[in-house]
Structures
1.
Amino acid sequence: MLPARCAGCGEGAGQLCPACRALLTCAAAGPAGPEPPPDGLPPVHAATPYGGPVRNLLIAHKERGALRLARPLGSALAAAVRSADAAGAPGAPGAPLLLVPVPSTRRSVRERGHDPALRLARAAARELRRAGRPARVAPVLRHARRVADQAGLSAAERHRNLHGALTVRPRTVALLHGRPVVLVDDLVTTGASLAEAARALRAAGCPPRAAATVAATARRAASIGLGR
Ligand SMILES: [Zn+2]
């Protein structure tokens, strides 16, 4: 059964009304992320600022199991990946992009019933391939230890909470070497999770060339779509 109201605006018909869909498909992806960035954060590109209907759509997908939103949100993520890829250091032309999602904790996967960033990464990779850019998802990161809930922590506390929290699964390191790696997540706020994910990849000898998210909360989100 279709939900009566749009998950973005609460008014339009269907799970995603045309106006909210347009917010995702017409988004102008560009550089985003916190200012100043945390140490080790690669260049971050986002499809759209976080707020209003976009915020509601990401929450509906992440927390309320609105899984059919993965495709439109994944298309927006694909636009951010393209933007990040275009701005990154030159790599082997045509080499398949590896999208590495920031992993959820096992506990939140259990509570939500899915891993939102992994699902969006898969949808983005499908969209990139449809558009002729070879891409695949490499879910190579895992938690090396338990972390506290990030909600309510300051940027410095988030950094301390997360430092050393992620690691690359040893048997997947060979998969990454020499490949263009783009970290992906649904949202960038302080950049602490992406910076930790980048640290773990660098420690394994596979530095990511960039990071891409559907949305960005930080102050620089205001610059998305400008100057490009
Ligand atoms: Zn709507």
Note: The pocket of zinc ion is lined by residues 6, 8-9, 12, 17, 19-20, 53 (CB under 6 Å).
2.
Amino acid sequence: MHGDHQRPEEQSVPGGQALACSECQVGLQEYLDGTLAKKQSLRIFLHLRDCKACEQSHLSLKNLFELLGDLPQHELPADFDDAILASVPYASYLAMEPLRRARVPVYLEEHFLPAVIRSQVTRLAGVGLSAVALGAMMVWDGSPWLVAASPVAIIVGVVPELLVRMQGLGRRVIALGRAEG
Ligand SMILES: [Zn+2]
């Protein structure tokens, strides 16, 4: 097939038989890696010296290896995580919702509190009751039942608002801890 050059098979080769082109091609990568046995490496070296076709393959492969070796080592961009998150489809994000919710203790879930307590009306009325009771206690002193009832009313009044706020706070603390961890 290469009529313009001497057939390497006809040469006498130190260390063994001359190499066929196919055998040379198969060994080229290891030849470049330097992982071939000395004898085989020498056979390829001698074949390349005399075979233009294989020498051409050898040069191409060598150039490719050098090109790969010269590629700059890229660091991950600082916003790599954000970029990944941004590329996650919103549907997948929603599908993960049960996993996220499972990590919030049940008593911090909004539905853990009865709807009556969570309702805006109850919370406002409770706070109003506390305010009235507090005012009554400060304005009218003397009436014994008022003195006894006011502190109770103040405490009971703020309970719904307090519960809802503490739940929200608990969830925020957990969300913060997760963002940091
Ligand atoms: Zn060859």
Note: Residues 21, 24, 47, 51, 53-54 surround zinc ion (CB under 6 Å).
